[in-house]
Design a protein that fits this description.
single chain; globular
Length: 64
């Protein structure tokens, strides 16, 4: 499921709102240990574009 989430995020990375929406969805699908891997991948790949979205999404206890 982690790899699927990465593929989806890569496909929607052109649009800020879609990226945020899909990132939130991804968190609901993943296990706790996979979430940390996704966070690191997102920050590495898209941190310059969507860093604040990534940090905010992963720090929201209602989503994680």
């Amino acid at each position: 499921m982690l790899e699927f989430c990465k593929k989806v995020l890569a496909k929607v990375s052109f649009d800020r709102a879609l990226f945020a929406k899909e990132l939130k969805k991804s968190l609901s699908w993943l296990k706790n240990e996979e979430r940390e891997s996704l966070k690191q991948w997102c920050l590495k790949k898209y941190g310059d574009l969507y860093g604040e979205i990534i940090i905010t999404t992963f720090s929201n206890p209602a989503l994680v």
